[in-house]
Amino acid sequence: MTATPILSPRMSGIKASPASVLRRRARELRAAGREIIELSSGNLDFPTPDHVIAAAHEAAQRGETRYTDVDGTPELKRAVQAALLRDHQLDYELNEIVITNGSTQALFNALLATLAPEDEVIVPAPYWAPYLDQVRLAGGTPVIVPCRQNNGFKLRAEDLQAAISPRTRWVVVNNPVNASGALYSPEDLAEIAAILLRHPDVWVLADGLYEHIVFNGAPAPTLAEIEPRLKPRTLTVSGLAKSYAMMGWRIGYAAGPAALIREMITIQSQTTSGASSISQAAAIAALDGAQDVLAERAAILRARRDRFAELVNGCSGLSCTPPEATFYLLVSCSGVIGKHAPDGKLIATDRDFSSYLLEQADLVVFPGEDFGLSPSIRVSFANPSSTIEEAGRRLKRACEALQ
């Protein structure tokens, strides 16, 4: 008889990341012989740049295969320091920077280091789903603030003001936004900053992982860059996964006040320890090398965005607006809710629609319920053009089959 493990109360209500669940389901279906198109993934189809791979190989050949400092190698921290100054005019000392095992760990370390029971974290919706459970795991309470479509799915200053309470410790400002692709302009951030300046005890978690996948030609701005007076209580988080197609290399970083960074390093020393030495060497090459690849790939993604948006808007019951950034389309599926699948099943929710697309069209998409905006789905256009065309055909057929 197998014993049932005794679980911590903190696991109540905590679920696996929706993205990880969908990736696993897609693998299972492919293993069963299905020709699955995965539109839910945060993986880019671009390769990691050749010079980055070469740097990793050379580091391994030099024997750089031992543990590094928990907070990252000095060389990589200097590269991050230079990148933040180059891209955002933000100047940090090395003791104000930590290298992490992906940006996800940077976010969680910060929350774990700062939240007490009943502390609140403001999370604009639509949101990246792990924000909520990271806050809960750290003992806090997420406070979700819906962001209206008529404001481009961006947090309004008046809505932020209304959400702040004496228990508010952080506000998450994700720019560009996963899942909507919304882009906060300097003017947008200035309005948010004006509210935050009235609340000196509220800190800013500025997540800029998609900062270079922007279609107006400039990196997405971040709050400390727009309002320097907020820098002493802002943690600027990013990584190399999306910008340089280094998803599996697992390198993220955070920059902020030295006292907070020190506690984040302490947590990291007792959990995952330092990031991969080889990945850190590769990251130095990415940050210090030629940056032309960023604009080149953004241009490719922009063309894919335009085409996929055209295909989606040609499907009965679906509609979307091309986003300003990221590689996601946020698609309203309100026009299919209430219809029936060919087998008679009712499409009552966006999760029902997502299940229908998986079972009947071999398409994996994110239901809007998982990022706080229903009825909608999120689809990725980080796929080859041929895949986008086929996905568009399947989506159109699936919508036409509904009654």
Protein model, in words:
The protein has 403 residues and is α/β, with parallel strands linked by helices. It is 39% helix and 14% strand. It contains 13 helices and 13 strands. A 7-stranded mixed β-sheet has the order 2-8-7-6-5-3-4, with helices on both faces. Strands 9-10-13-12 form a 4-stranded antiparallel β-sheet. A hairpin with an 8-residue loop joins strand 12 and strand 13 (376-380). Helix 11 (292-313) packs parallel to helix 13 (385-400). The longest helix is centred in the C-terminal third of the chain and has 22 residues, at 292-313. The radius of gyration is 21 Å and the shape is globular. The termini are far apart.
Q: What average pLDDT do the residues reach?
A: 95
Spatial order of the strands forming the largest sheet:
2-8-7-6-5-3-4
Largest sheet: 7 strands, mixed
Uncertain spans: none
Tally of helical runs: 13
Give the end-to-end Cα distance, rounded to a whole number of Å: 49 Å
Percent of residues in beta strands: 5-15%
Measured as a percent range, the helix fraction is 25-40%
Instruction: Describe the global form.
Output: globular
Could you state the order of secondary-structure elements as H and E?
HEHHEHEHEHEHEHEEHHHEEHEEEH
Let me know the number of strands: 13
Radius of gyration from the alpha-carbon trace, in angstroms: 21 Å
